[in-house]
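PROTEIN DESIGN WORKSHEET
SECTION A - STRUCTURE
LENGTH: 219
TOKENS:
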């Protein structure tokens, strides 16, 4: 039994219209805990190495904790995201949307503390920090990231918008303190703001054409 409304989107619609939602987050409409729990329930079906399920999902809906995380994120954003803006190339199609993305990201930075809920997915133990091989890195993060995307897709079908953000990890230790989690034992993944969307219509976004990125049999 679902805790809320479903949009009735097809799988293909969900996969092609789950956008990074920032300016269209409804900051004034509360999100029921059960609805978020339902999305986590679906996320738990994601693939993960050896089915070890070393994952944890921290949902945040209390104002002080949200403010604490927003503060950590904002500090990193102001230091890193601002300076990066100047460096884009107008001839590069992937960069054409960048100024819109940056405006949207500025909005999220300014309003992050107001979102009804946030998700910080975590994994134990922490990954090998020094000289981790690609297989170690891929194995580690591949055991968490599919579940996070499942959460975001499930949220979209329920009228919720999300954005994948990672800047708070610049100050991961401070975020761990805000969340009261043991930094030495637990690694955080992205910080995902969650809210109902203002309107439910979203479109497929610009991506490089398939010819540029698809390879059959050999590179
Ligand atoms: C690894 C990663 C890190 C990201 N970090 C941030 C971030 O810190 N802040 C933010 O507003 N968006 C962040 N994003 C969202 C991207 O800007 C967004 O996914 C991209 O622009 C595509 O958006 P679209 O699917 O709506 O076209 C991140 C996405 C990924 C996958």
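SECTION B - SEQUENCE
RESIDUE ASSIGNMENT:
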């Amino acid at each position: 039994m679902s805790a809320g409304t479903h949009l009735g989107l097809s799988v293909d619609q969900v996969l092609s219209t789950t956008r990074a939602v920032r300016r269209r987050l409804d900051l004034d409409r509360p999100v029921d805990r059960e609805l978020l729990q339902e999305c986590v329930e679906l996320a738990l079906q994601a693939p993960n190495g050896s089915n070890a399920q070393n994952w944890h999902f921290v949902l945040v809906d209390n104002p002080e904790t949200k403010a604490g995380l927003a503060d950590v994120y904002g500090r990193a954003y102001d230091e890193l995201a601002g300076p990066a803006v100047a460096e884009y190339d107008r001839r590069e199609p992937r960069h054409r949307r960048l100024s819109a993305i940056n405006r949207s990201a500025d909005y999220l930075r300014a309003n992050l503390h107001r979102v009804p809920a946030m998700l910080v997915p975590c994994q134990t133990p922490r990954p090998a920090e020094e000289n981790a091989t690609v297989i170690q890195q891929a194995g580690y993060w591949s055991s968490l990231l599919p579940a996070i995307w499942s959460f975001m897709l499930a949220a979209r079908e329920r009228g919720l918008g999300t954005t994948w953000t990672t800047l708070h990890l610049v100050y991961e230790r401070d975020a761990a303190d805000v969340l009261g989690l043991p930094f030495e034992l637990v690694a955080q993944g992205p910080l995902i703001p969650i809210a109902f969307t203002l309107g439910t219509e979203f479109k497929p976004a610009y991506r490089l054409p398939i010819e540029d990125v698809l390879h059959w049999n050999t590179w």
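SECTION C - NOTES
The mean pLDDT is 94.
Residues 63-84 form the longest helix (22 residues).
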